[in-house]
């Protein structure tokens, strides 16, 4: 049995982690929940037991085996050293440490063996990257991927617990003729699309867009992989969708790709255009599989394939992936 903490337990991902720890029957003898001073002292129920929210500190981390990170990257950076000094392993869902050389970045279906390389911190990848790479890694096994063009359609809950609240408030304001006042997003998201997630990072690409290449390279051990990505916020409540075009070293047929996806851990093939069957966010929410469909030849390159994948970014894209990493850690 393990003593486990969640840093950021009151947020969208933290709350999902509590649910999934119980659902997967993670062997827990004690669960400690950490959040900001705004939440400290509140009592929530977990597995039929009351648990009081605490403020994070080295003292409060002491005695824990694992702390799951479900806070923003600045909070992760602030507390990771204290978690490690207190003797626990920090399995972090934020972007804080993902690209550090001594921090493994893990999707359990793709590179589980990398967990062993940790020195106290292990990172879980970006949500769109997890959903995409869980699918494309199965195709990379058929023929190495040279490059990828991806466009993401990211749900409002990807921006945290405040995202869906803002979407609902805007829909209501528009229905009743009141002014829309965006706070979480930089523009009105109701009945709109916003082609920016994250700040500008490189040559007009945003930080969110560069994660697909940089994290994808590290997880799949493909240091030369080239990715062009466009990330778009869409007025969907939950589950991210990604359109992906892959260019391989040699041609991969649609039939081979369908077989590989159908057999891939963590994936479900949903690909029957004639019967209107393809992955959609309403169908992928509140479960852990990445649905993959619309697999077809890339008409611009004989070595290319185009596909569409969709997955719950709060579950597989964040909470579940992080907990699966913690499961690998205790199996070791
Ligand atoms: N939402 C999603 O779909 C995904 C999110 N992520 C990543 O997961 C992390 C959490 O995101 P999300 O759950 O959406 O965010 P939320 O905004 O919903 O939750 C943030 C959490 O951090 C806590 N927190 C804020 N400030 C402090 C502080 N000073 N000390 C301690 N705790 C603090 C909050 O506590 P309080 O309630 O007290 O303010 C809350 O529990 C982020 O790194 C995000 O990038 C990754 C993939 C998907
Ligand atoms: N930025 C993503 C969610 C996220 O938090 O990503 P990351 O864990 O890489 O910061 C979104 O808004 O949908």
From TrEMBL:
Keyword field: Amino-acid biosynthesis, Diaminopimelate biosynthesis, Lysine biosynthesis, Methionine biosynthesis, NADP, Oxidoreductase, Threonine biosynthesis
A Pfam short name: Semialdhyde_dhC
Class of enzymatic activity (EC top level): oxidoreductase
Quaternary structure (record): Homodimer.
Pathway stated in the Swiss-Prot or TrEMBL entry: Amino-acid biosynthesis; L-methionine biosynthesis via de novo pathway; L-homoserine from L-aspartate: step 2/3; Amino-acid biosynthesis; L-lysine biosynthesis via DAP pathway; (S)-tetrahydrodipicolinate from L-aspartate: step 2/4; Amino-acid biosynthesis; L-threonine biosynthesis; L-threonine from L-aspartate: step 2/5
Family: Belongs to the aspartate-semialdehyde dehydrogenase family.
Summary of the function given for this chain in its UniProt record: Catalyzes the NADPH-dependent formation of L-aspartate-semialdehyde (L-ASA) by the reductive dephosphorylation of L-aspartyl-4-phosphate.
NCBIfam families in alphabetical order: asd_B (TIGR01296), PRK14874.1 (NF011456)
Superkingdom field: Bacteria
Catalytic activity line of the entry: L-aspartate 4-semialdehyde + phosphate + NADP(+) = 4-phospho-L-aspartate + NADPH + H(+)
Residues engaged in binding NADP(+): 10-13, 38-39, 157-158, 179, 313
The protein, known as: Aspartate-semialdehyde dehydrogenase
Encoding gene, per UniProt annotation: asd
Origin species: Faecousia intestinalis
Residues the record lists as binding phosphate: 98
Positions contributing to substrate binding: 154, 233
Molecular function, one GO term: aspartate-semialdehyde dehydrogenase activity
Domain Semialdehyde dehydrogenase NAD-binding stretches: 3-118
EC number annotated for this UniProt entry: 1.2.1.11
Catalytic residues in the record: 127, 240
